[in-house]
Amino acid sequence: MLKLKLITSIVILVSTFSFGQKADEIIGKYRLPNKLDVEIFKSNGKYSGKIIALRDFDEGQTTDINNPKKSKRNNPLIGMVIIKNLEFDADKKQWINGEMYGPEKGMFFNLKITEMREDEIEAVGSKYFFWKTLEWKKI
Question: Which CATH number fits domain 2-138: 3.40.50.300, 1.10.3720.10, 2.40.128.520, 1.10.1200.10?
Answer without folding.
Answer: 2.40.128.520
